C-alpha cells in the first residue's frame, strides 16, 4: 500500500453498520477518480490559459503588453528563433508559415483593429465600403 492510498483511505469516512461491505471501497475509488479528474482539469486550464498570477507579476498579459509590430514579427520569423539547432525543414516550414500566413493575417487584423478602435474611422470605413458596393 502506497502513501497515497493511505491518505485517500484516511479521507473516506468509515462505513455505516447497514452499508454493504464494498460500499467503502467504492466510495474510495470514486473519490480518488474525482480527485484525479479535478487535478487534470486544473492542469489543463493552467496549460491553456496560463498562470494569471505569473502573467500579472511579469506584466505579460494581453491587456498590458502591446502586440508585436510587423517589423518585429518579420525579424522573429527571419531569425527562426524557435528552431532548436540546425533543423532546416522545421526552419523552412516556420518561415513559410510566417511569411505566407502570419504576416498577411496580422496585417489584416491590425488594420481592422485600427479601424474599429474609433467610431469615426468605423463610420468612414462603412461609408467607403457602401460607396464601393454601389459602384460595383
Question: How would you characterize this protein structure?
Answer:
By secondary structure, the protein is mainly α. It has two domains: 3-56, no CATH class; 66-135, no CATH class. Helix content is 73%, strand content 0%. It has six helices and no strands. It has helices at 3-11, 23-49, 52-58, 70-79, 88-116, 119-135. Helix 4 packs antiparallel against helix 5 (88-116). It is flat, with a radius of gyration of 28 Å.
Number of helices: 6
The global form is: flat
Q: What is the first-to-last residue Cα distance? A: 78 Å
In sequence order, what are the helices and strands, one letter per element? HHHHHH
State the helical fraction. Answer: over 70%
Radius of gyration: 28 Å
| Low-pLDDT segments, ≥5 res | none
Q: Helices and strands: which structural class?
A: mainly alpha
Total number of strands? 0
Strand percent estimate: under 5%
Number of domains: 2
Key terms:
mainly alpha; 2 domains; 136 residues
